[in-house]
Amino acid sequence: MTDDFAAIARQIIDANGYLTLATADAGGRPWATPLWFAADRYTDFFWLSRPSTRHSANIATRPDVGITVFDSTVPISQGQAVYIEAVAGQVPDADLEPALAVYSARSVAAGGRAWAVADVVSPAEFRLYRARATACYVLDDHDSRVPADPARA
To answer: Using 50, 70 and 90 to split pLDDT, how confident is the model at 83?
Structure first.
């Protein structure tokens, strides 16, 4: 394995369409859910969700989240993942257009559709969410988590 942990993190994020989002409710009860995502600058991770879902309600109460991005199809003992600590919430109205541009570009590239602001504000059922990374890790050759800054060029 290379010691360029940032490059490893970028490759994993670029190659995968789903992340696992870990949240907790007000009492600390955990919840994890897979979500299709788009990343911007390897620091902002966007997804669409209904505000009524368990993970969205948890984020409204406790915005600190954990994220894992990984390829579940690789053979045993060959897996690698990116582990992200982040703060999440609905994308503020003032940030919707640029955030939707990122999300829509990846959606269209993956065979999905482009999204407009009207698709993610009331009365629409979905909202655009963002998790902004505060720390990022990958595994080294000894299966220990090591810091990785994928935004570093």
So the answer is: very high
